[in-house]
Each structure stands twice: as C-alpha cells, then as structure tokens.
Amino acid sequence: MTRWLRTSEKVLPVILVLVFILMRLPATHSPYHQDEYKWVQYSHPEITLPGTVPHPPLTEFIYAGSLGPLVGDDNFRLIPLVFGLINLLLIFYLAKIIFDRKAAFWVALLFTVSFYSVLASLMVDVDGAVMPAFFLVMCIGYFKLKRTNFQFSISNFQNWIWLALIIVGAVGGFMVKVSGILPIFALFLDFSIEKGVFSDKKRILKYAGLGLLGLIGLVAVLFLARFVFPFFNLEYSFNYWKHFWTASSFFNRGWMQTFIQFAKAIMYTSPLLLLPVFFIDKEIWRKLRPFFFFIFIGLAFYLFAFDFSIGALDRYFQFLVVPLCIISGAVFAKIFGSKEIKLKKEDFIIISIIAISIFALQFFNHVAPPLHPKTEWISRFFSFKWNFLFPFTGGSGPLGFYISFLFLAILYICSIVLAIAIFIKKELKQKVFVAILIIGLIYNFSFIEEYLFGKINGFAPKLLYDATEFIKNNPDIKAVTVYNDNGGYEIMKIGKYRRRLYTSPAFDVNQKIATLNATKDYYLEINIPRIDPNSVFRKYFDSCNIVYKQTDRYISAIVYDCRNATNL
User: Fold this and answer.
1) Distance CA 14, CA 163 (A)
2) Average pLDDT, the chain
3) What is the pLDDT of residues 101-150, one digit of tens each?
4) Which run of H or of E encompasses 224?
5) Is the peptide bond before 529 cis (omega within 30 degrees of 0)?
6) Which 3 state secondary structure label does DSSP give 48?
7) How far is it, in rounded angstroms, from Cα 450 to Cα 454?
8) pLDDT score of 2
9) Is the pLDDT score of 5 beyond 60?
10) Residue 224 burial class via C-beta count within 10 angstroms: exposed 0-12, middle 13-18, buried 19 and up
C-alpha cells in the first residue's frame, strides 16, 4: 500500500500535465478572433510600428519581440499555452507550500479541468496566462517569507531569494500590464495585517510611506523602461489608460454591458470554482487571505473604479481563475481529506443519473436569439423560456460557440440548492460535495467540448475554414467585408479582406447604412451571434444573393454577393 501511494504521488502530477495539454491541444490552431490577430501584426514592424501596444513594454517584448517571431504567425496560441503549463506547475508548488501535497493535487486538478482556465491558457493576450505567472512567482516568494515571519539575516540567504522572487513577480507583472499592481496591493494588505500595522497609528504612517515608496519605485521602473525597451511609448500608453478613466461619468457607463460581461464570467467560472468558496473555515481564510483580497480588489477595480464596459471584460476577469482554484481546491481537500468518504453506491448512481439528465437538456430544441436587442434575452429569462442558446464570444475570442442557457441555469440552480442543503444538514457535506464535483465536471466538460469541437450546437471554426477556401478559390471575389470580424484574420491571409462590419447599436447606424450603400461587394457572415432579424443589416443581406452557405446545427457560414443589393 505504501509503495502504491508513493508511486501514485509520482504518477499523478505527470497525468495532470498530460491531461492539461491534451485538453488544450485541439484549440492551438483555432482562428484568431478580433483583438487576437493584432498580436500577430505587432510582430511584423512592416505592418504595425513598434511601440503601438498600449501596455508596459514586457507585453510587446513577449509577443512581438521574442516568442511571437519564434513560434510563427500561425502558432501564437502556443505562447499562452506554455505560460499556462508553467502556471500549472507553479500553482501546484504554491498550494503545497501553503497546505500539503493532497491539497496541491486538488488545486492543480481544478486548474486543469476548469473551462475558464482552458480559455485563459489559449487566448492570445496576457490577462489569462502571462499575468498569473508573475502573480504566482510573487506569491511563492511571499508565502515562503511568511513562514519565517518575514525575518531577514545575513546567514539566512534563502529569505533573500524569496524576496527576490517577490520583486521579480511584482515588477514583471506591472511591466506586462498596469493592472499588475492589483495583486501587489493584495499582498501588501495581508503583510500589513500580519505585522499588526492597523493597531498603531505610527505603524500605519510608516507602512503607508513604504507602500508609497514602492509605488514610486514601480513608476520609476516604468519611466526607465524606455532605456531597456526603446520601442516603448509611455505617452501613447498613458493616453490609452486615461481613456478608461474619462470614457464616461459613473452613472452614464455601459452598466448593462458590464453586467452581461460579468454574468458571462460567472458562467465561465462554473459552480465548481464558486460554490466551495462559501464553505471556507477560519484556517482556510487565514492561510489564503491574500487571494480573497485579490478577488475583492480586482472586482472593485474592473467593475467600479474604471469604465471597462467598452473593453473585453470577460478576458479581464480571468484574474479570478488562480485564486478561485486555490481556495476551492483547499475546500475540496479538507472535506475529502479529513475523513473517509461515506458515499453509498446508490448515492453515486442517483447523483450521476441526475447530472446526466441535466446534461441531456442540451439536446432539446433551442432558439438562438440575436445578440441585439438584449431585451429578448431578458424577456426569455424572466418568462422562464430558457430553451435558448447563449453565444460565447468576445473581443479576444473565442470565435464563438453556443451553450444551452437551460442547461446552465438548471445546473447552477441544482448546485445552489445542494449547497444550501449543507447549511440545513451539515452531515450531508461530503455527499453534496461529491455531487458538486460531478455536476461541476459535467458543466466544465460541456463548455470545453463545445469550444474544442462544437458537436452539440455547431462548430464555427470548421465552417470558417471551408468558407475561406471557397472565397480563396472564387476568382470573382476580390474583396470581402466580414461580419463581426468572424474570420477576419483568415480572409486577410488570402488577401481579400476589405473591412469588418459590426451591428451593435453602440455604433452610428446612419454611418453604417451609408457604408453599406457605398460598399456593394461580397460579405462573409459566420452568424454567431445572430443578427437582429428586424435590423437594417438583416434587410440589406436579404436583398443580396447567397453564393455560398454551409450550416452546422445552429451556426451557418454564408457568403453574400451584394453587388446588386437594394439601397437602405
């Protein structure tokens, strides 16, 4: 038995790494979507001048100056994937430092199977994979120092190494993106509590001064960065950051868009990572306090401090993945590690049947409402007409896939009801958490399957590749306008990209109409999300000739010949 346990301890990490890679590998060449292909263009100075990335210089250096040219234009997803794999190893090591090996396995397991983690480790950007790497490095140094009560001496050389890790993580994260300051605040707040700073006014002033000194140091590093990275344009970046501060007044922000993006992040996160947070105890809170602070500070920053409604909020919320995996992993480890699991065979069968029945809801007949107006979604939600498909797409990808809202809602409701049952009858905790684990895995695997293969509701990437091949081989098609920029990069690669067309009411409709009337040409529509059937855009396309159409379940790829379209 002892030999088996030792062998399993060596084999399990290898299995986790393999599962982590295999669950992401099929999407490494999925189409770049909207903001993603900009990173490819940044790596070509003949297309985009150096210094136009609106972030601190390490971001541009990673994608445009070093790793991007190394992997090649079609392999940019390998960059976040490599960082994601590094994060898996780091989060395992960090959880082992804070708790033990068993908790580390649970944390790493959640990080491996969470769809939000899968998406984050494949999105061509820095929020989901690059930033967390620096955060985890900083946390490893911090928790190592915390074990020694932050004591330094000449003889204790190791502690200086841990301090160096904190500095590397803090400066590195800040040099990737200004929001890298958020985890620094979280750790500094925890450090202040550990040192009892808030019980003494003199200490408050002392540590406030140290914090201000550290902030000045970070700003100084930003100013000095141009000497290491000559392409870095601080003024350009500053104007970009200022835009989120001055974009609108607090009450005139796009709160509806902010709410929808936050709701989408909650759907991505799943009950598997969210519900265990409500069952922490004092020990977990005390040990993981910096991660709670990070979540609170991050949510306040992205939801209220600035107006990010015009940005890719679902991408920004990927900062939640690491802290939630650590917190929820610790809860699972504690519940299943302290006692023998008392689960009868009948209980497991019943839970599995219920979970599979909920999974089967996805195969019912569904409606795919248009993205705009949002009132149809809201109406369906409050009238309990939940048999509609929710489109998951965004400024930084993915290209787009559908998930049944009925499936999502029922799974969330079941999970919440199960969680409430624990507060009523505590002895049910283990059984309920087995149910939450099974339901959570089915939830996340459904997302992963639709993202990677689209077997239930349709697979947009395959439709796009076939449509691109048709456009490429059709000599009559000289230029194509691409709806929602779905497949914009692929059309660019064949040299037939004219422009993109967005149908959001946020844009000037009259200007869009004028452009449509002036551009009587070919259009490509990968119709996820759907266009409002009552809109001028649908009316315009209905007056065009369809020269190509291919459908996969609820998603279609259509090429329109609009050279003789009716003026709007």
Assistant:
1) 30
2) 91
3) 999 999 999 999 999 999 999 999 999 999 999 999 999 999 999 998 88
4) helix 201-228
5) yes
6) coil
7) 4
8) 42
9) no
10) exposed
Tokens of 103: 């908790």
What average pLDDT does the segment 68-75 reach? 94
What's the Rg (C-alpha) of the chain? 25
| 415-440 average pLDDT score | 91
CA distance 47 to 85: 31
**Contact predicate 472/441, CB 8 Å:** no
Q: Please name every residue paired with 389 in a beta bridge, in sequence order, or none if there are none.
A: 404
No. of helices (H) and no. of strands (E), the chain: 26, 7
CB atoms within 10 A of CB 147: 12
Separation CA 90–CA 78 (nearest Å): 18
CA 114 from centre of chain: 11
Give the integer Cα–Cα distance in Å for 153 and 289.
27
Structure tokens at 191: 């450090």
Query: What are the respective helix, strand and coil percentages of the chain, to the nearest 5?
Result: 65, 5, 25
Q: Give me the mean pLDDT over the 472-490 stretch.
A: 96
Strands 480-483 and 522-526, sheet pairing: parallel
Helix axes 345-360, 429-452, angle to 10 degrees: 30
Enter the pTM of the model.
0.95
Q: Is the dihedral of CA 472, 512, 501, 376 positive or negative?
A: negative
Determine if the peptide bond prior to 373 is cis (ω within 30°). Answer: yes
**CB neighbours (10 Å) of residue 240?**
14
